[in-house]
Each structure stands twice: as structure tokens, then as C-alpha cells.
Amino acid sequence: MLSKRIIPCLDVRAGKLTKGIKFKGNVDIGDPVEAAREYYEQGADEIVFYDITASSDKRDIMIDVVRRVAESIFIPFSVGGGIRNLEDMRKVILAGAEKVSVNSAAVVEPKIITQGAQAFGSQCVVLGMDVKKAEVSPKIPSGYEIVIEGGRKYTGIDALWWAKEAQNLGAGEICLNSIDADGTQDGYELNLTALISENVQIPVIASGGAGKPEHLAEVLTKGKADAALIASMVHYRTYTIAGIKQYLNGRQIKTRMFW
């Protein structure tokens, strides 16, 4: 049985660690470099970094912050936000990231997934999916719609169709974020997570809604996710990564222990 991964998420705005609820009302809560180092020392399996306004502001990602984070940790590091083309992907990898997450740009120009996979390997290309519940319709049969530009633009694209398409294009992993659950700390969107996990053959990272260790246990079992993204529950020091892993291992959910 493969170990489940616990992955802290650093949402960054103007160089500061920030957190909102359902992609709104963000407040700055600290320094992303310091947070990355702390989570690495606590036993995080990976770190995810999102420059959350790069796409909507149509600017480049903050490479200097990416480089400083990469220099402070020694675990896999995924970076997203403002990745528009192959050259942007190359810059992020050269700055120290092991993985590049494409979201809005992949919807606008899907070939970026294939180009990245061919240039750097599928294992380096993560599809970021920001998803919101929608009315079931012929256009959106799953009842889940892809939203881009940091939750600002509805696409009319069915989430399940897009997950399968991205896999076919060469994505090596999916980071699946429920906008409805994001920041609520009420639990992950289990139906959405299971729907995607059961219909693709690449790893799925569940994102949005973690508030207590029980939520991770649910999404890693009932939701069938390969990994769980967390933010508020560690940013506000309610829990530690070590404590979360001890809880999961105590319930026969295997995680990698570093102590």
C-alpha cells in the first residue's frame, strides 16, 4: 500500500502568505518562506505554492519567492499561478521546483500540458482544477464546473471531462480544489473527490475544506484521494503535521513518518 501524502498549501499574494474562504476575503497571515521551512521540519511530504493573483493580474509568478522557498526545504515542491507557457514552466523548475501546476492556462491552451510533459516528464506536470458545484446539464453532466482565474471566471467545462482530458494530454497528477469547501474547515468535498479519483489513473490530491484530522481520514478513504492538501489547520497552528500523521497512522491510513 502506497503511503498517503500530507501537503501544506502556501497561497501567496504580493509575497505574503494569505488565506481566504471560498476564494474571497483573503488576509495576510505570514511569510511563505518561514512557513515552508516550518512545515518541512514538521514532516510534510511536499509543499505546494500558489501565486494566487498572478493569473488574474496577468503577470509573471514571483520567482524570487519560489527560489527562496526551494532553498529552505528538501522535499518535493510544486508551484502554480501565472504559468502561461513552456518558458514559464522552465523558469519555475530552474528556480528549484520539482513540479509545475497549470490551471487557467491549461484551460485556455491545453497543449501546455503536453508540451510540459514532453519537455520535463509527466511527473512534473500537475493539473490544478478549481471546481464549483453547478446544475446538472448536458454541458455539465457531472454537476461540477471548472472555474479559472482564481475563481473569477466560469468556463462551462465539465470537471470530470476535463480531468480525463488532461490525463490524456499528459498530466501526471491532479490537484483538485473545491471552491465550495475552500477555507471553510468543514471537510473536503467527498463526492467530487471520489468522482475524479475513480475515473482517472493518475494521483489525485484533494484540496479545500480541511479543518481537523478526521476530514483527512475521510477524503483519503471515502474520497479515495492519494494525498490531502491542508492550509488553515496548520497555518493557524491548530494542528501540526506530525500530529495529523500520528492520527492517520493510528487509523491504519499509512503515511510516511520522519521521526
Describe the protein in words.
The protein is of the alpha/beta class and 259 residues long. The chain has a single domain (5-250), classed as TIM Barrel, CATH 3.20.20. Helix content is 34%, strand content 27%. The protein has ten helices and twelve strands. It has an eight-stranded parallel beta barrel with strand order 1-4-5-6-7-10-11-12, surrounded by six helices. Helix 1 runs parallel beside helix 2 and helix 8 (213-221) crosses helix 10 (241-250). The two termini are 20 Å apart. The model has no long low-confidence stretch (mean pLDDT 90).
What's the CATH topology label? TIM Barrel
Tally of alpha and pi helices: 10
Supply the CATH class.
Answer: Alpha Beta
Strand order of the largest sheet: 1-4-5-6-7-10-11-12
Amino-to-carboxy terminus distance = 20 Å
Gyration radius over CA: 17 Å
Give the rounded overall mean pLDDT.
90
List the secondary-structure elements in sequence, H or E.
Answer: EEEHEHEHEHHEEEHEHEHEHH
* Largest beta-sheet details: 8 strands, parallel, barrel
Structural class: alpha/beta
Number of strands: 12
For the record, what is the CATH homologous superfamily label?
Aldolase class I
Number of domains: 1
CATH architecture: Alpha-Beta Barrel
Uncertain stretches: none
How much beta, percentage-wise? 25-35%
Global outline: globular
Helix share bin: 25-40%
Topology at a glance:
Elements: E1 5-13, E2 16-21, E3 24-30, H1 32-42, E4 47-51, H2 63-72, E5 77-80, H3 86-94, E6 99-102, H4 104-108, H5 111-120, E7 125-133, E8 144-148, E9 153-158, H6 159-169, E10 173-178, H7 190-197, E11 204-207, H8 213-221, E12 227-230, H9 232-235, H10 241-250
Parallel strand pairs: 1-4, 1-12, 4-5, 5-6, 6-7, 7-10, 10-11, 11-12
Antiparallel strand pairs: 1-2, 2-3, 7-8, 8-9
